[in-house]
Design goal:
Layout (H helix, E strand, L loop, with lengths): L12 H11 L18 H11 L6 E2 L6 E5 L14 H9 L12 H13 L4 E7 L7 E6 L24 H8 L4 E3 L10 E3 L7 E2 L6 E2 L22 E8 L2 E9 L4 E4 L11 E4 L10 H12 L4 E7 L2 E7 L6 E6 L12 E2 L6 E5 H12 L9 E6 L14 E7 H12 L6 E4 L9 E4 H16 L1
Parallel strand pairs: 11-12
Antiparallel strand pairs: 1-2, 2-4, 3-4, 5-6, 7-8, 9-10, 9-19, 11-13, 13-14, 14-17, 15-16, 15-18, 18-19, 20-21
Length: about 450
C-alpha cells in the first residue's frame, strides 16, 4: 500500500499528541493544505432538498418545517420506479459514495446508508412508519428540539475552520474522509501509515470515549447485520431431557448446522456437526424407561438436523430417521406444551422453524412497551406425540435448542433503561465483539435490521 505520509521513527509524546489533536478534531487554525473537499452533512443537506422540492415525494408536512416525509417503497415491488428512490441516490452522490457513469448502481446500499445516517442523528426521530402502505409507502420524520433547524452553512474552502456548532462526530468525519490509518509492516509499534486509498474503519461513540471498528466508515455498518452474514456462525445451546431430567447440555458453533444423533455410528458423510445424545443407561435407573429411551435414540438414524440459512432456521430428519419429531417455540424453562406443536419435522424436505424478522419486529414492540417478549427457544419432542395435555416431563426425549444470539438480543432489550445510558451486548456469533449501545441506538439498529430483511 503506498504511503502518503508517516510520522518519524521515535516520535516523542509531543509528536503523538499533535497527531492525536489532528485526529480527534480539536479546533485549531488550519494553516496547512486542505485534506480534500468536505462532504455535506446529512441534515442541512436534507433540509435543502426539502426546501428545493425537486425530489418526488420528499416534502415538508407543516409550515413550521418540523415534520417531513420520505418515500420508502420496497425495492422488489413490481410498481417500483427509479424516481421512488431519488433521495437515496441523491445522498449517495452528494456524500461521494456513488459516481454516476463510473460506479455500479446499488440501490439497497444507498437506502441502507441513508437510513443509517438519519438514525444516528440526535434531534431527529422517526415519527411514523408507513412503509407498508400499499398505495403510498413512506416514512415521516420529525425534528424534536427547537434548535433542530439551526444548521451552520457548510464551508468548502481550504481555510475551513472548526465551528462551535459542528458536532465532534462531523469534525472527525471531515478530517478522516480521505485517510486510512494502520500499522506499517516491520516498523516500530508507534509508526503509523497515512494512505488515501481507503476510508478509515472507525466509528466514534457518542461520548468520544470509545473507538469501535466497523466495516464501513460512512455511514457505520449496522453491527446487528452480522446476524445475516452467511459466513458468521451462530452459537447454539443444546439441552436434552430424558423424562424431564436434564442429562446433557453443550454450547457449540456449527458452521453447517448441528445434527442430533443417538449413536456414534451415525452417518459421518452428512455435513452438519453431530451432537451425540447420551446413553440413558449411564444416567437413569428405571430399566423400563432406559429401554424406551434407547429405542428412540436408535431410531434417529441420520439424525435431526438444524441449520441456519440467511434469516431463517431450518430442520429436517435425515437418513434412516424413522422416529417422528415435533417442534414448537417456547420459553426457556417451559415448552409451549398446552397449545400443541407448531409442526412436525419432515423427513423428505426441510421445514422452516424460525424466522428472525418477526422476532426482531416483536422485540422492537417489546422495547416500546406495547408487547410481550418474543420467544426464541426451540423445543423438539423426539419419538412421541407432542405433550399437548400432559406434562412435558412425561415425554421420553425432549431437546431444547437456544440460539444464544437471540437470548442476548432480548437481554439487551430488557436492560433498556435510560436512552442515553450504554449497555453492552455480546452477539454470541463468530468473529463478533461486545457492543456498547444506548437504548436509542439499539432500537435504531433493530429497525435497520428489519428493513434489511424486508428489501
Amino acid at each position: 500500500m503506498p504511503v502518503a505520509g508517516r510520522p518519524k521513527k521515535g516520535m516523542g509524546e509531543e509528536g503523538l499528541l499533535g497527531f492525536g489533536i489532528l485526529l480527534f478534531g480539536v479546533c485549531q487554525p488550519n494553516d496547512g493544505p486542505t485534506m480534500g473537499t468536505q462532504k455535506p452533512r446529512i441534515l442541512p443537506w436534507l433540509v435543502s432538498q426539502l426546501d428545493g422540492g425537486q425530489l418526488e415525494g420528499v416534502a415538508w408536512l407543516d409550515q413550521s418545517r418540523k415534520r417531513f416525509r420520505i418515500p420508502w417503497k420496497h425495492g422488489l415491488r413490481q410498481d417500483a420506479q427509479q424516481e421512488d428512490f431519488g433521495i437515496f441516490q441523491a445522498w449517495a452522490e452528494a456524500s461521494g459514495a456513488y459516481n454516476p457513469g463510473k460506479d455500479k448502481p446499488d440501490l439497497p446500499t444507498w437506502k441502507r446508508n441513508f437510513r443509517s445516517a438519519l438514525n444516528r442523528k440526535e434531534g431527529l426521530r422517526l415519527a411514523e412508519d408507513r412503509s407498508k402502505d400499499p398505495h403510498d409507502p413512506h416514512k415521516i420524520y420529525e425534528f424534536v428540539n427547537s434548535g433542530g433547524m439551526d444548521f451552520p452553512e457548510l464551508e468548502t474552502s481550504p481555510d475551513t475552520r472548526c465551528s462551535t456548532s459542528d458536532t465532534q462526530e462531523d469534525i472527525l468525519e471531515g478530517l478522516l474522509s480521505d485517510m486510512a490509518l494502520g500499522p506499517i509492516p516491520n516498523e516500530e509499534p508507534l509508526s503509523l501509515a497515512v494512505a488515501p486509498e481507503h476510508p478509515p474503519q472507525l466509528l466514534l461513540s457518542p461520548n468520544l470515549d470509545i473507538l469501535a471498528p466497523y466495516e464501513n466508515s460512512e455511514p457505520p455498518e449496522n453491527p446487528l447485520r452480522r446476524l445475516l452474514v452467511p459466513e458468521e456462525e451462530w452459537e447454539f445451546e443444546v439441552t436434552a431431557f430424558y423424562r424431564g431430567r436434564q442429562v446433557f447440555q453443550q454450547t457449540v458453533f456449527c458452521p453447517q448446522g448441528l445434527r442430533l444423533v443417538g449413536s456414534e455410528a451415525g452417518d459421518r458423510t452428512l455435513p452438519e456437526q453431530p451432537i451425540l445424545l447420551p446413553d440413558p443407561g449411564a444416567l437413569l435407573t428405571d430399566r423400563g424407561v432406559i429401554g424406551f429411551v434407547s429405542r428412540v435414540l436408535n431410531s434417529l438414524g441420520g439424525g435431526l438436523a438444524l441449520w441456519r440459512a440467511g434469516q431463517q432456521l431450518w430442520a429436517q430428519r435425515l437418513g434412516h430417521c424413522h422416529t417422528a419429531t415435533y417442534w414448537a417455540m417456547g420459553e426457556e424453562l417451559l415448552p409451549n406444551s398446552g397449545h400443541g406443536p407448531d409442526g412436525e419435522v419432515p423427513k423428505d424436505k426441510e421445514a422452516g422453524v424460525f424466522d428472525l424478522r418477526p422476532f426482531v419486529t416483536d422485540l422492537i414492540t417489546f422495547i416500546e412497551g406495547s408487547g410481550q417478549s418474543p420467544r426464541y427457544t426451540l423445543w423438539f419432542c423426539v419419538g412421541e406425540s407432542w405433550p399437548k395435555d400432559q406434562p412435558w416431563t412425561k415425554r421420553l426425549v425432549m431437546v431444547k435448542v437456544v440460539p444464544t444470539c437471540l437470548r442476548a438480543l432480548l437481554e439487551m432489550a430488557r436492560a433498556g433503561g435510560a436512552s442515553s445510558l450504554e449497555n453492552t451486548v455480546d452477539l454470541h456469533i463468530s468473529n463478533s465483539l461486545p457492543l456498547s449501545l444506548t437504548s436509542d441506538q439499539y432500537k435504531a439498529y433493530l429497525q435497520d435490521l428489519v428493513e434489511d430483511m424486508d428489501f
